[in-house]
Amino acid sequence: MTADPGTPTATYRLQLQPAFPFAAAERAVPYLASLGVSHLHLSPVLEAVPGSSHGYDVVDHSTVRAELGGEEGLRALARTARAHGLGLIVDIVPNHMAAPAPERLNAPLWEVLRDGPKSPYARWFDIDWQAQGGKVLLPVLGGPLGEEWERLRVEDGALRYDDHAFPLRPGTEGLPLAALLDAQWYRLGWWRLARTELNYRRFFTISDLIAVRVEDPEVFDATHATLLELMRDGVVDGLRIDHPDGLADPEGYLRRLDRAVRTATGEASDGEGGGGRWTVVEKILARDERLPETWPVAGTTGYDALHHIDGLFVDPDGLAKLTARYRAFAAPPADLGGDWPATVRRAAREVVTHELAAEVARLTRTAARICAADPRLRDHAPWALRTAIRELLVRLPVYRPYASVGGPPATDADAVMLRSAAADAREAFTVEQEARVVRVVRDAALGRLGDGPDHRDFCARFAQTAAALRAKSVEDTAFYRYTPLLSAAEVGGDPGRPAVAPEEFHAFAARRSRDWPATGTVLSTHDTKRSADARARLAALTECPGWWARTVEELTRSAPGPDPHLAWTAWQTALALGHGDAARLVPAVLKGVREAGLRTTWTEQNAAYEEEVTAFLEAGPCAADPSVWAAIGAELDGPARANALGAALLQLTMPGVPDLYMGTEHLYTALVDPDNRRPPGFGGEPEARGVSAEKLLLSRTALRLRRERPEWFGPGSGYAPLTAEGPSAAHCVAFVRADAGSEGGGGGGAVTVVTRLSRRLAEAGGWGATRLPLPPGRWRDLLTGRTAEGSEALDELLSGLPVALLVRS
């Protein structure tokens, strides 16, 4: 079996923005083609809020974004890419649109605000018209209405407030202001009301991103028409689906999209598999969670691969010692960063009670209506329903269950998960009869109580709320509280158990090769908290935990932080960059302390504390003597080099389609956004040197090999682990890629060899007598030109670089 010609061999992510539009991407095409990728992967291209640096705040699905060069600019980019043998993958955002200022930018939303629930566009948005007296709450005011009254005015047929311009219900323009406000289909409110009073679904807790009911066929057609036209015309070749877990019915959406793409491109449907065109979903999988096999996609965007690759470079014994030193130094309470499970539980309770109070309130209202309509379910008080909903939500170990009313039943795994959560949730009730409400909520979440509108709404919304809770409580709160090793706090990761043994990695890779051979893999993205090379430096700390703890203690004696937790986190953040750049470090650390919510938050900012944080950073990491960074480099540069090159080679050669984030073919250290969304400078960088030159060589070599030999790496190829022999065998990860069935015999193929835990290896005396038995034949390392055959001594094979990429001579 040969590789599917529609599957990319590798993609290259470009983060488009006004400072890097289609024309800039077009100028980079010759370089990217020479690098060896097969497709450009573009961030969202449809019309977005003016000035947006990311494009996920779409305002018009019918138009390609003018600030990027419009449709002609996109088509020109596609033509140039095609001329150089490249295709285009585009990121799409089906879950939400912007609620912008001025509101007229979003024409469908403008119509709804003007005409209310009878507007033909009312079906577009997930609005609970039964709440707020039949009005849409718009939490846009800087203070309570009475304090903002003088800033409201009617002008040019609209109600204006700062940059906002709201439509007026026909016939109300001449009313006095109080009467005019009461007459509208919306209610202007203080922004703090969103937490408890909001009556439209949003993206996580971001009130200026309003959810779209893409499950409605009419809404789907309207929001995908331009995209499908671009696919029909050969401009777009594949898709990345943003946040599918926000959708009411992810599988239903993906099947509708698959049919629409096949119709637009004239491709016959096979009913299963990877979709009409290569399509991956941004699905965040827990460690032991599996992507639903019935989804018609090629796989995920690749955060699951990131976790398994990163974990190979974490020393579990060293991590345990590092964690103990962190607890001794920072002394965090168990549920505020001292213990991972306890920290997650507390964060989930905080988020479900506060940030997602409005979402829980809507679920409670819907559950109450379900119970009121069925005599057998009555007498469950609203407080009991609300408690049961919260207790179930905080106990889910994954983003969401997949269940629907009238559709396929929940999988056995989801049913078991909810049964287990329900059994534990009963502990929140002291009266046994009251605890029975948990079973009602569980069955409603599984779609088992009926098939009416409220049953469908509850089942979908429970899952959507679960996804928002998981993202906000784990990735946006607990990750910033539990900080013994910052590199472990990454999208799709498990800070409580980040280490991955080689056997686990091989099992994961073999499973992907068998079940999802065209799935995506990533190491750095626009959403990662830290780039792969920054994490590579941090992972090296698990090989020298005592040295790091002593270093932080010494550094903070002369420049103590506002609190030891902050000092530990800040110095690791600076270490990830490799220097103390105030322009980049201060914003990243301030974002971290606000996300953690220990002493300041986004909505309740503690200005005095934040000033202390800034002063500490400027006097500590950012003012450290060059000798400090030289000493740190002497300890970490070697292991960090091995980690960075090893992770890069693993991603580029393991099963799946690697996606390189812009600039990561070189050494690339970046922190959380916006630091990782800076416009790239193709052609403007100095000549690569040192590790950056080595990484460029590795990336170009592996990418070109994938492009030249898709049968070794794509669908239909094989994967087989290779096991080293000798005293240091545990430090080697190796595997062979080839045509399926020929991994161990003759014919072509490639062998990847990577060093893990290199500092521990050096402390043990190096490779010594450790050897790697190679498959039959004579092999050549494409990175060094060295040849090998039979059982190769690793101290010779890896004498120049800590990695090797071999092909049969």
From TrEMBL:
InterPro entries: GH, GH13_cat_dom, Maltooligo_trehalose_synth_4, Trehalose_TreY. Residues 8-704 form the Glycosyl hydrolase family 13 catalytic domain. Pfam families: Alpha-amylase (PF00128). This is Malto-oligosyltrehalose synthase. Gene3D superfamilies: Glycosidases, Maltooligosyl trehalose synthase, domain 2, Maltooligosyl trehalose synthase, domain 3, Maltooligosyl trehalose synthase, domain 4. It comes from Streptomyces mordarskii.
